[in-house]
Amino acid sequence: MSDAAERKPLVLVVDDNQQNRALAKATLELEDYEVLLAASGEEALRSFEQRTPDCVLLDVRMPGMDGPETCKRLRALPGGKDVPIVFLTASRDVDTFEAAVAAGGDDFVTKPVQPTEMVLRVQAAVKVRRLDATNKEYFELLRRQRDDLMRLTLQKEQLMSFVVHDLKNPVSTVDLLAQLLQRDKALSPETRETANAIRVEVSSLMRLILNLLDISRSEEGALTLAPSSFDLAALAQTVVDVLKVRAVARQVELESRIVTAQLSADADLFRRVLENLVDNALRHAPKGSRVTLSVERHPAELELRVADQGRGIPAELREAIFERFVQVEHAESAASRSGRGLGLTFCRLAIEAHGGRIYVEDGEPGAVFCIRLPHVQQ
Q1: Is the pLDDT of residue 70 over 90?
Q2: Total domain count for the chain?
Q3: What pTM value is reported for the model?
């Protein structure tokens, strides 16, 4: 057996953030890799000249010499053309991807990077380096196809972001016009009720837009919280009042059984979580039934429950229901439990950002969406 086959694969990690370097080192060493660390492009070049690595993990944004420039200079060093270079970046956009590809990058991973994904990408890069010429040709074809797919995905995400931002203004204008109608004293009761219904639907549309934005921010690691202490009972009653019109239209009784419960969380995000869960419950509650909000206290947690009396969710699908665009179809009808496919995804991301968890229980009948949050102020 040759020395090359016996030695541990060597990975050069280049990142100006000390925590990122430490995480990469700890993760890769657990998988039996040898790791070299560099805090800048200049340091990476010096390390490369001393020992040629089997793979380079390279941050895109660094002070001084950035990732693409470092990549170009690494490629110009002896042995640099054959070493796989995996770019790490928090910027999920087409321009950053194109710059990484143009500089000679072999792979492109967005932050925050999951340790398992990091290991898999490094393993693939090291294996590709050892392929023979014929297999490398096939891999190059697959890589070009992958790059084309990534480019299209990023363009789609960027377009969606632009569309979502552009939708907020006209939707806000519609809500403003509906408010002006409501202030008209000459308005008939029927027209006033219609204006109120318009505001409820506009609120639902705005919630969908904000869900899209927050899901995108979460993927980029940019979903930030603004925690404050507030009365959960008052917030829940506000949600009930907002969605009361929809409940009446569907002939469903909507009530909050929450008394006083102080909670420390991002009030705006939490209100939208409740709106999404109540709206989801109302859409699946049969006429003449009830949707309720309640609270159960545990030693270190507070559990919020939103229950309906609809068809419920099969046990095998209670995890999948929180994934994007998942629909739970019922064989005996065309009904589905997914909403627009993003509301429950947003709920999970927002609750997990608070260090909590969300899950579904059987309401016998119906479904009970349960939120557990730690560190509750009693």
Answers
A1: yes
A2: 3
A3: 0.54
